[in-house]
Specification:
The complex is a heterodimer. Helix content of chain A is about 75%, strand content about 0%. In chain A, strand 1 and strand 2 form a beta hairpin. Chain A is mainly α. Chain B has 2 domains: about 60 residues; about 210 residues, MetI-like (MetI-like fold), CATH 1.10.3720. The longest helix of chain B has about 45 residues. Chain B is flat. In chain B, helix 4 crosses helix 8 and helix 4 packs antiparallel against helix 10. The chains are: A mainly alpha, B mainly alpha. Chains A and B meet through helix 1, helix 2, helix 4, helix 5 and helix 6 of A and helix 1, helix 4, helix 5, helix 6 and helix 10 of B.
Chain lengths: ~290, ~290
Amino acid sequence: MKMHRLLGLGYLTPYILGLLVFTAIPFGGSLYLSFTSYDLMSEPRWTGLANYERLFTRDRTFIKSLNVTLLYVFLTVPLKLAFALFIAAILNHKLMFIGLFRTAFYVPSILGGSIAIAVLWRYIFATEGLANMALATLGLSPVDWFGDPTNALFTITLLRCWQFGSAMVIFLAALQSIDRSLYEAAAIDGAGKVRTFFFITLPLLTPVIFFNLVMQMVQAFQEFNGPYIITQGGPLKATYLLPLYIYDEAFKKFNMGYASSIAWVLFTIVTALTLVAFWSSKKWVYYAGDKRS
Amino acid sequence: MTELATFNDLQTAPRARLKLISTAFRYILLFAVGFVMLYPLIWLVGASFKTNSEIFAGAGFLPEKPTADGYIKGWQTSTPYTFGRFFWNSFQIILPKVIGTAISCTLTAYAFARFDFPLKKILFGSVIAILLLPNVVTRIPQYILFRDLGWLDSFLPLWVPSALAGDAFFVFMLVQFLRSLPTDMEEAARVDGANSIQTLIYIVVPMLAPALISVCLFQFMWTMNDFLGPLIYLSSVDKYPVSLALKLSIDTTEAFEWNRILAMSVLTIAPALIVFFAAQRYFIEGISSGGIKG
């Protein structure tokens, strides 16, 4: 059996190689770089905490960018998940053409991060674009989507909510796996639709809600294509998310050390929120067969 | 009709009507959402055949005077290359990336799902860690590494990490799938004297096929859509994939030639759409079983 034990590691060689070279070493490297000043030309120069001190005390752009990023994530993730769950709950009835609707709702997710879709968004929310024409038909006045700071961020949130399909498919699969006898029992006990949803469906969905929440959050913190193409971070840096700032510092100005420190602040926030989610999940996520619940 | 039946009908009629209304309401809502989901895409295709003056003139998608001008001029681009060149570049990234992902992730999933070895827990933990790790953190040192290797402005940085099972999501998905498969076929093969590689190729891979197809399809889509990777690593226009080429054409012509941009946007998303509609079963199953970003 000794042979057998090493065989597994043998199959894992490509993965371990990739893990070390492309993830583990770069991970440590970026932490090191975040304490240096490095312009790619000369050797990295150790500057201690100077980068972090500058970020939090003197860098107005960073504070603005951090606020915008948090606003974006806390706006986009709940909206997208709530919408996905709502549609999944509607689809989870014996309706005709369910497959057709599911496919239609999933198409935007497939095109996801595509540049073409970001381009399309610029046309739709242009002053004379589709969105304002639709508002005009409803008798509403046109909106300055890209000129107004709050609206500009919201167009990107809308783009990502438009791509609710993959979260919806996961919710739908989970909804369909719920044992029907639970609903029958609830109906016999006299529970209405709303009560059934909140006391039976929702608790049973918490594992997938948790999964979707963590995945969508990690992803939202890394949003780049949307603001880069649609708004270029403007107006007045209202859509200048941290990944854009990191990109500009690293690959336009070649401040590799400073950019690394921004990346590490972002990483710390994402990790902290993920840990909070995991830690709190013990209190609100229900796993079937789990004796504690 | 007996009296009792009439009585029952009277009792159930309001409930049936309520049910009908609620069903109708569901359909109306689903159609409305479906319309909002798909109209932008329908409009995109229609508008790509419009003249530039017509694009912002109305919300309808049917062009009044259809023209392929956007496609013809857009295809030529403002560079010395046509869009055909950029599609070819995308293909040169996609092909090794998809093949490399399929092979390396299969090996990795096979190891995790079927073998016991030292450090297994920690190594599988690293898969989850990579899954949750924001790429932003490793990007800068990776760039420096690729520079030192002399790989900048080549396709290598765009596919080599994936060919070493770098996309943890696919590893995770295949491990989950493989764990759910029974092992008796593999044991039978082993009894018959097959070694672990033969078992992998002749027994495991065929069983894994549906999940592997999902992996390849998703990797194809994501690579086609990838923008930041090429933006960072590629500097010469002759190596641009379609995503970068589209961005370039926005920068050079958007002020006036809208239909060219829209036409090239349609071409950019066409491969992904065709693949999706041809194989949607694998996409839906892939997400439902493993959960997916997007």
